[in-house]
Amino acid sequence: MLLQYWPQKTDVRFMTLRLPALLFSVILIAASFGLIFTKGLNFGIDFAGGSVIEIEKPANVNEEDVRGILGGLGLGEVQVNAARGTGVEGIEVIVIRFATQDADGGDQEAAQQTANNSVRAALEDAFPGVNIRSSAAVGPKVSGELLRSGLIALGVALALMMLYISVRFQWQYALGAVAALFHDVIITMGMFALTQFEFNLSTIAALLTIVGYSMNDTVIVFDRVREEARKYKKLELGKVIDLAINQTLSRTLLTSGTTLLALFSIYIFGGTVLSGMSFALIFGVIIGTYSSIFVASALVLQLGIDRGDKPKREVVGFQGV
Questions:
Q1: 50-138, what's its fold?
Q2: Residue 318 Ramachandran class (φ > 0 left, ψ -120 to 50 alpha, else beta)
Q3: Rounded to two decimals, what is the model's pTM?
Q4: Which of 114, 133, 143, 172 lies at a CB distance of 3.0 to 4.6 Å from 49, suitable for a disulfide?
Q5: Which residues cross the membrane (predicted)?
């Protein structure tokens, strides 16, 4: 119903804004690197190591009660947060997190598991019959391997995307697409450093999803650019790109809009377990839509493309047929 209010034809001069947009993107990337290296990412248990225990909230018990019970176990800083579990029932839960324990020269993983068992025992003594929904301990060796694997997955995804675009289009398109993906990933990580949302394996999955979503949006724009460049060989490349973006603009905004509606629902009602991943996807969809226009397309305009309009070289002595 709302589609009838969308103009059938738009004529926005996107490429005239490419230089201010480029400056804006450079500032965002520089700020993101600064935040990542100074403030740092708030690594979750997956990457930093430690334990996470989730219990069903006992009646008339709050976070302070649980924190007081665990305070005498010598675990260091313990995070205790209340949340509502996922699913139809929506059971109230308490999530307990604590960092990697000092092994005093012994087996680090064994020390972490011992601390995990101590917390479980203390909870069962204080709240008889408490339902421990999940309990996991991750040692620093395993968490380091997970972080390396996650970063390798991101690097491989970017490399394969560049290869795909090079084969399907031209190398100029490939550089523009990968630059946009790099732009999206770095700025999203910078936002995580700023907000201190937990950065874990779910966030890596969200980043890979952002890479795929942004690439899909960029390929649609590039496909239309290639089509219009062949049709209007005498038209300036900047105007061709503007024409292509305007033709795909309604599709881009409607797809991004409906995706954001679903993601905001997950962020609001999904609880703390899904908040980090949904936040990454929300921010990634927005920044990915922006980069498809003002990073990928602008770089293609700067590099130029082969439009098949070069004059044919005459061969001396050849008269033709």
A1: Alpha-Beta Plaits (3.30.70)
A2: beta
A3: 0.74
A4: 143
A5: 21-38, 146-166, 173-195, 201-222, 253-274, 280-303
The phi and psi torsions of 13 (rounded to 5 degrees) equal -85, 80
Report the distance separating Cα 251 and Cα 264, nearest Å.
Answer: 20
Q: Name the CATH code of domain 10-43+143-303 (choices 1.10.3210.10, 3.20.20.10, 3.40.50.720, 1.20.1640.10).
A: 1.20.1640.10
Whole-angstrom distance, CA of residue 78 vs CA of residue 97: 6
Burial class (CB in 10 A: 0-12, 13-18, 19+), 100: buried
Pairing of strands 92-98, 132-138: unpaired
**In a structure prediction context, what are the per-residue pLDDT tens digits for the chain, which is 321 residues long?**
445 555 667 777 888 888 898 899 999 999 999 999 998 888 777 677 777 888 888 777 777 888 888 877 777 777 777 776 555 556 788 888 877 776 666 666 777 777 888 888 888 888 888 888 877 776 656 566 777 777 788 788 778 877 877 777 777 888 888 888 889 889 999 999 998 888 877 888 888 888 888 888 888 888 888 888 888 777 888 888 888 888 888 888 888 888 899 889 888 887 666 788 888 899 988 998 888 888 888 888 888 776 665 554 554 554 544
Q: Quick one: tokens of 47?
A: 């990457």
Residue ranges per structural domain of the chain: 10-43+143-303, 50-138
Q: Cα separation of 222 and 300, whole Å?
A: 9
